[in-house]
Write a structure and sequence with these properties.
The chain is an alpha/beta fold and about 775 residues long. The protein has 2 domains: about 400 residues, Growth Hormone, Chain: A, CATH 1.20.1250; about 270 residues, 3-Layer(aba) Sandwich (Rossmann fold). The chain has an 8-stranded mixed beta sheet, sandwiched between helices. The protein has a 4-stranded antiparallel beta sheet with strand order 1-2-3-4. It contains 25 helices and 12 strands.
Length: about 775
């Protein structure tokens, strides 16, 4: 129960950080958890009889509450950290209080491992299986009670664990009453305990607008959705500046505090819809392909679908990766959205966006990548670590495959300064055409910009002269500036949205002339993201470092496009903490003259196990985000399956030859690093339940093999060096914490397959250490 409470809090904490701050950062939370566990090894060595397991479980529950209250009532502002030094201390306090619950939960487990010698594998199995159950508990609590309620469910579960440890009836009764109180808070959290947001979150700014009304808050296991209403809500970021149209009423949706995504009171038959559509960049493709059958990828709340039908599309198929949006538009906001999803010319696919793109049974005249996410300035670097499997080379190649013979692909992205998002999309498009073997790609491409966005159009067939004339007429009518046309002349550039130098044209033509050379010489990283490195917003390059350091404190954006440098700082911090955490138990134990040191190979064995588990876990979480659509579902699925399977492996460890298990695991993981990517792409068109089942099958066998070696190592440690299990626990946890950050860095630099291969090498290192130890 204590382990279940800890994992419930761990999963819930990823959601709280995602909503309150700026991105998922699951690996940070996982690292905090394992570092807290590692610290418990020191405390157990120093004070082996300091507190009962009942008291430790109860303190864990209190630490959960204290952690949430600190995070909630001491808001951290990442954007002001460059000039407000207090923010650095607040961030440190965040991490310390967030790791505190895991310290006490780990202390409970370490105490059980130390006290129940001879059956420590059963204690470890109980820890793992309880942790796996905590993942399911978190998903249920998040769906029913939201992020705030899930915190109190975690605390209540810890109190139940304390009650099971309690030796006296009155203690059990008291703890049961406290647990019931925690569940009551989870059922209806008071407004005073609602999650507060960073002042820089778009939602936090939106509710400050005059007459803004925070109309709705709804949670699911993967997302928090907020609705803000107000007369000032007008969200048409790519609308031409020459449009003279009365804007319709809108409400704004925010997902995890990010947005806005407009819900628009407009039907396709309304003349206003036709007038608006004529001034939107994507209108061009419906002008070129009248009565098109269109696929709109990541359709937001349906505005692009309304305008596509108004522009002349005969039918639109929408992909929607967030079920809460569908739930809102078919429920409380169905009237405002004019019941769009029941329109006879609209279909909502049950597949994910990537699943729809991979579905070889469907073809479309137009594939439209909608601009449904908020502007993310490259200088902030806040989204460098965010996986995005829609803006990858494989996704664009699949989109081209879904087009009819003369179909059009259209992508609108935010205009970056300096050129970034739009240039990276151009790079992906060029790479996709190269993969398709298009001999003269420039004949298939058109690109233009407005005030805030850039739009790229790709044709399966070369553009004809009549189509190029229609494109020019459209651009002139809306005062959009061309960035690239097959027959572009210099006099057509930079006429309306004037710039001192048209850097977009320069960047696009350089990429078209020699993509590899242009990518190599660009200030930002413009390599096409792939499913193996799906980090579209990771633009950082090492050559930027002097400029980034010079900008600190000189700009309101904190990290200058270098979320990577934050990783380096985090790695240094975690390493400085991990070394004393791993070494301290050894210095304490050596004071006991009867203690027999287990040797360096034994320490290396547990260090390799910790590193291997974390490298594999983080790479699988990131890899299966594509298969399961959302990071939190991937996190919970991977943790649940690996932990349950590892618990089974731990229970079976006396019957499994651990050296053979390690060798088999290393080989299996190497095969996974090569075999999982094509398997995931093959399974994308499956239903969500089928993809979830496939994930469970994939994870079960490696999970069993990953659970057996640690338990087997503990048994060997009990034989050769009694009392050293707490040291093994500390080494394993400390190395896991470091490996969590290393896994994120390896994924960015080397790719997810390489990260998993590094995990396989770590398990091979454990096999070698086992041989050297004579186990």
């Amino acid at each position: 129960m204590t382990s279940a409470g800890a994992l419930c809090f761990e999963v819930s904490l990823t959601r709280l950080f995602a909503v309150q701050q700026f991105h998922h950062f699951a690996f940070v939370v996982v690292s905090l958890a394992v570092m807290g566990n590692a610290a418990s090894g020191i405390l157990l060595v120093l004070r082996p009889r300091w507190a009962s397991r009942m008291l430790l479980s109860a303190i864990f529950a209190l630490a959960v509450c204290a952690s949430y209250l600190t995070i909630n009532f001491l808001p951290f502002d990442s954007y002001s950290i460059a000039w407000d030094r207090r923010q650095a201390w607040i961030l440190i306090l965040y991490f310390l209080t967030a790791s505190l619950p895991f310290l006490f939960a780990g202390w409970v487990t370490a105490a059980c491992l130390a006290d129940f010698r001879g059956v420590s594998h059963q204690m470890y199995a109980a820890n793992l299986i309880g942790s796996g159950a905590g993942c399911l508990l978190a998903l249920g609590a998040l769906s029913i009670s939201g992020g705030e309620g899930a915190v109190w469910v975690s605390a209540a579960t810890g109190l139940m664990g304390a009650g099971l440890f309690a030796p006296r009836n009155w203690q059990r009764l008291t703890l049961a009453v406290l647990a019931a109180g925690g569940l009551a808070l989870a059922a209806k959290p008071p407004d005073s305990l609602r999650l507060s947001l960073s002042p820089q979150k778009p939602l936090a700014l939106a509710v400050l607008a005059p007459e803004a009304r925070h109309a709705l808050v709804r949670w699911s296991a993967s997302t928090r959705l907020d609705v803000v209403e107000g007369a000032a809500t007008h969200i048409f970021p790519d609308l031409s500046m020459v449009a003279r149209v009365e804007l319709p009423r809108q409400a704004a949706l925010y997902l995890d505090g990010e947005g806005p995504i407009p819900v628009t009171s407009l039907s396709p038959e309304d003349p206003t819809a036709s007038a608006l559509a004529a001034h939107m960049p994507f209108y061009l493709v419906y002008l070129l392909r009248p009565e098109a059958n269109a696929l709109i990828v990541q359709s937001g709340a349906g505005l692009d679908a309304v305008l596509a039908l108004a522009a002349g599309a005969s039918h639109v198929t929408l992909t929607q990766d967030e079920p809460l949006v569908t739930e809102i538009l078919t429920g409380p906001y169905s009237d405002l959205s004019q019941r769009l999803f029941t329109h006879p010319s609209v279909s909502l696919t049950q597949r994910s966006s990537r699943g729809a793109l991979q579905d070889a049974t469907s073809s479309y005249d137009v594939v439209h990548f909608a601009l449904s996410d908020a502007y993310r300035p490259v200088t902030s670097g806040a989204f460098s670590l965010t996986e995005n499997y829609i803006l990858t080379l494989e996704a664009f190649t699949a989109a081209l495959d879904r087009l009819t013979e003369d179909g059009l692909l259209v992508i609108t992205r935010w205009l970056g300064n300096p050129p970034s998002e739009e240039s990276r999309v151009w790079s992906i498009v060029l790479a996709a055409l190269d993969q398709k073997g298009v001999p003269e790609p420039f004949r298939h491409l058109a690109a233009f910009r407005g005030l805030r966005t850039a739009t790229i159009v790709v044709s399966r067939l070369p553009f004809r002269s009549g189509e190029l004339s229609a494109i020019r007429e459209f651009l002139d009518a809306n005062e959009f500036d061309p960035i690239f046309l097959p027959d572009l002349v210099q006099s057509e550039l930079n006429r309306y949205n004037r710039l001192p130098t048209d850097r977009y044209y320069e960047q696009f033509t350089a990429l078209l002339a020699d993509r590899r050379k242009a990518v190599a010489s660009a200030t930002f990283n413009l390599d096409p993201p792939t499913d193996d490195r799906p980090f579209f917003f990771h633009f950082f390059r090492w050559r930027q470092t002097p400029q980034v350091l010079a900008m600190i404190g000189q700009t309101w954006q904190p990290f200058g496009g270098s979320g990577y440098l934050v990783l380096l700082a985090l790695l240094a911090t975690v390493s400085m903490i991990a070394i004393p955490l791993a070494a301290a138990p050894w210095f304490v134990l050596r004071r006991n003259r009867s203690w027999t040191p287990p040797g360096i190979p034994a320490a290396a064995y547990f260090a390799c196990l910790g590193a291997g588990f974390m490298l594999v876990e983080v790479s699988l979480i990131q890899r299966l985000t594509l298969l399961l659509d959302r990071p939190v579902l991937s996190l919970a699925t991977v943790l649940f399956t690996l932990l349950i399977a590892s618990g089974i492996g731990s229970a079976l460890s006396p019957r499994l030859p651990h050296r053979l298990s390690l060798a088999s695991l290393a080989i299996l993981l190497l095969l996974f690093s090569v075999g999982i990517p094509p398997l995931v792409r093959w399974a994308l068109p499956f239903t969500s339940s089928a993809r979830l089942a496939l994930s469970g099958v994939l994870l079960t066998i490696p999970g069993i093999l990953m659970g057996a070696p640690f338990a087997a190592g503990l048994r060997q440690m009990e034989k050769i060096s009694p009392g050293s299990t707490t040291w093994a626990w500390a080494i394993n946890g400390a190395m896991s914490g470091v490996a969590g950050v290393l896994a994120a860095m390896a994924s960015l630099d080397l790719g997810l397959s390489a990260t998993m291969a590094l995990g396989a090498l770590a398990y091979f290192g454990a096999w070698l250490a086992s041989r050297l130890s004579g186990w």
